[in-house]
């Protein structure tokens, strides 16, 4: 009796498409991801990066509106988890009425709360503005102290706020690490760190002395407008050819802005040598 022929079973084809990899998340303060042990750049490469930023924007400025050290301090305190545009909208009227701690106390917490109600955490922030103003009058004669420790003792004022005020108003070469700067420092690997303080310390070591005053502005602005969280705009990047980020977009050519900026630097060098 012949054996019944059985059809060989077909192997089930493996699914053709692999499950999509989850999109790589940009480093953030809450989720820094894998952090490099050291910078991806040598000292001279770091120097070149800051030279590009300087040539592109020699006098960068913060985007918060203020009229004196006190209004700057208040504006920075209000800017936590809020946009600079939103803070400026809220402080326009507030600072017209109160640009000193004394005037702010006279205005009172309820009125301050009313003025800033369009920005996040406005109740806590209004309370802190009043407490901070009281403390400035009590401990510093109504003046903003030019001292990190004293600034950090004020209600609502943390290290980042103190660094912004010391840098912008008093001209210290401090680095205020916000969400944009933290992401950029880790993404391009110029000052990797697990926490904002780690990044600040790494940048203090890495930034060439002559660029210390403006370094934090350049990095914040670059992170905010070019090397954005979801998708960096590499086509508009002045440091494209210097950048070693694995997230750098592969372009057919170096963007014009980077070439023009590099050219401006070498023209300046040729001029000063002649
Ligand atoms: S080249 Fe792209 S990834 Fe690198 S710093 Fe510029 S925008 Fe960011």
Automatic annotation (TrEMBL):
Co-factor requirement: [4Fe-4S] cluster
UniProt EC number: 4.2.99.18
Family annotation (Gene3D superfamilies): Helix-hairpin-Helix base-excision DNA repair enzymes (C-terminal), Hypothetical protein, domain 2
Entry note: cofactor: Binds 1 [4Fe-4S] cluster.
Enzyme class: lyase
Transmembrane segments: none
Low complexity composition bias: residue spans: 14-28
InterPro entries: DNA_glycosylase, Endonuclease3_FeS-loop_motif, HhH-GPD_domain, HhH_base_excis_C, HhH_motif, Nth
UniProt cross-references to HAMAP family, sorted A to Z: Nth
Family assignment from sequence similarity: Belongs to the Nth/MutY family.
Protein name listed in UniProt: Endonuclease III
Species of the source: Roseibium aquae
Lineage of origin: Bacteria, Pseudomonadati, Pseudomonadota, Alphaproteobacteria, Hyphomicrobiales
Name of the gene this protein is made from: nth
